[in-house]
Amino acid sequence: MLRNKLGKQTLLFRNRPEILGTGSVVGVKEGQGPLGKGFDLVLEEDTFGEKNWELAESKMLSQAMKTAMKKAGKNEDQIDAILSGDLLNQLMSSTFSAKDFSIPFLGMYGACSTMTESILMGCVLVDGGYADTIVAAASSHYSTAERQFRLPLEHGNQRPPSAQWTATASGSLVIGRTENPQFCCTHATIGKIVDTGLTDANQMGAAMAPAALDTIYRHLLDTGRDWSYYDRILTGDLGRIGKQILLDMVKNLGMDMSPAYDDCGVLIYDQEQDVHSGGSGCGCSASVFAGPIYKSMLEGSLKKVLLVSTGALVTTTSALQGESIPGIAHAVAIEALR
Amino acid sequence: MSNASKDAKEQKKSEQKQQMKAYEKYVKKFTPSPKYFSNSVKAFIIGGLICLAASYTEEMLIARGFEKTEAGSIVTVLLICTAQLLTGFGWFDTIAKFAGAGVIVPITGFANSMVAPAMEFKKEGPVLGSGAKLFTLAGPVLVCGISASVIIGIIVYLL
């Protein structure tokens, strides 16, 4: 008999792993966006003083982890593991930033859903007594992602309205066990791959929306909660188009989640910032949660948040071979207990 | 495998395909289409201005005593150099975002598609970085263009 599993896909964290500290570092454009003030550090330049974009992203990620550890009042020796991921091959940014610490490291990959995957696995370690304190993190960088997945930065072209802008952002959480927990991860739902058959890499929001719906619906079913239970249901990076699709699909089910629902990719940029459908990338949901959303939780204006980072598992190979884009979403429920 | 299970499998597959098609159609409802008309107008104006400037330069060169073919080559070089310089300054992509096909279709777009990867992969070294990636964007265009001209050449020869 599984003690800590609810329904088909949801994990219950009985020992209430608590968020002890958060760190968020974002690039120039994200800093100019509507959430700019909510992040710990806004870069003056997207190179962050490094000689290439990849090193800049690693440095951002390290910085986010250091900030989270500092806020949690933990030093390196007190962290049992780092769980981190990004969009680059071999998780370059994460592995290179983990070089800065002598802490056991687990690389996570779920495309843009990585942040909730890291939190989920981190909570399993903490809840199961395999770790006292862990760091969960994720990162993305516009310039490194463009170079790996799309075109050179200086190449002149026009993007379609459904294209999304990879956020230059890193977010990190320190999660641990405490005597008297306050801000806790209570549940997590592991998502399934949902294949919509879409092949257009400029339609990622639409490719991920059904996966997000599947995971949210399953989460509510497994936990027996209602749509209205959460103050905020936040998807990772569906963008404007994906957000509308998700809302419409929920409406077609005869339900309504619009007051509580929003999308990190929509929140992070202003419509005037030339980002078309909105932000994307693992750093998007990571930094938005670790920055402004967690701040609102600390201030007490948000109490129950369901973070659903969404990933479009597109590779340059599969895209060229004409294969569809599998979508995935993992959900983590973060609640203020007092 | 028995025929019945094979049929069932095939039926499931076609059902899935239908579902995917239906979703694609559903998604289209939410996707704004690009502004084809205003994009075309912008491309027409900017592209036209580039042609006008090139033509004017050519006429000037001819008036100064250059041969027509010489003048043509010089104008081409000037266009390429200007596009390369603009790419280097990081302005070309901004212009292209506005003008679209107006600057991408002429030889300026070709120049940009060579310089952009060269800059992007400079960090990986001059040979295996810029050198190897120089033709990533222009290469496919060259291959298709040259192949097409060879085929057409053969057809013309045979006729």
Question: What form of chain A results from the Cα inertia axes?
Answer: globular
Secondary-structure element string of chain A? EEEHEHEHEHEHEEEEHEHEHEHEHE
Order of H and E elements of chain B: HHHHHHHH
Radius of gyration of chain A: 18 Å
The fraction of residues assigned to DSSP E strands of chain B is under 5%
Largest sheet of chain B: none
- DSSP strand count of chain A: 16
Biggest sheet statistics of chain A: 8 strands, mixed
How far is the N terminus from the C terminus of chain A? Answer: 31 Å
Could you state the oligomeric state of the chains shown?
heterodimer
The CATH superfamily of the largest domain in chain A is identified as Stage V sporulation protein AD
Going by helix content, strand content and strand pairing, the class of chain A is alpha/beta
Shape of chain B: elongated
Query: Any low-confidence stretches of chain A, pLDDT <50, length ≥5?
Result: none
User: Distance between termini of chain B?
Assistant: 54 Å
Can you offer a commentary on this structure?
The complex is a heterodimer of chains A (338) and B (159). Chain A has helices at 28-32, 53-72, 92-98, 114-127, 142-149, 204-223, 239-252, 264-267, 282-299, 316-320; strands at 5-6, 10-12, 18-26, 41-42, 81-85, 105-107, 133-140, 165-166, 169-176, 183-189, 194-195, 232-235, 261-263, 279-280, 304-312, 326-336. By secondary structure, chain A is of the alpha/beta class. Chain A has 2 domains: 16-176, Stage V sporulation protein AD (Peroxisomal Thiolase, Chain A, domain 1, 3-Layer(aba) Sandwich), CATH 3.40.47.40; 183-336, Stage V sporulation protein AD (Peroxisomal Thiolase, Chain A, domain 1), CATH 3.40.47. In chain A, strand 3, helix 1 (28-32) and strand 4 (41-42) form a beta-alpha-beta unit. The mean pLDDT of chain A is 94. Chain B has 8 helices and no strands. In chain B, helix 3 (68-89) runs parallel beside helix 6 (107-120) and helix 6 runs antiparallel to helix 7. Chain B is 82% helix and 0% strand. Chain B has a domain at 37-50 and 80-158. By secondary structure, chain B is mainly α. The interface between A and B is medium-sized, with 26 and 36 residues.
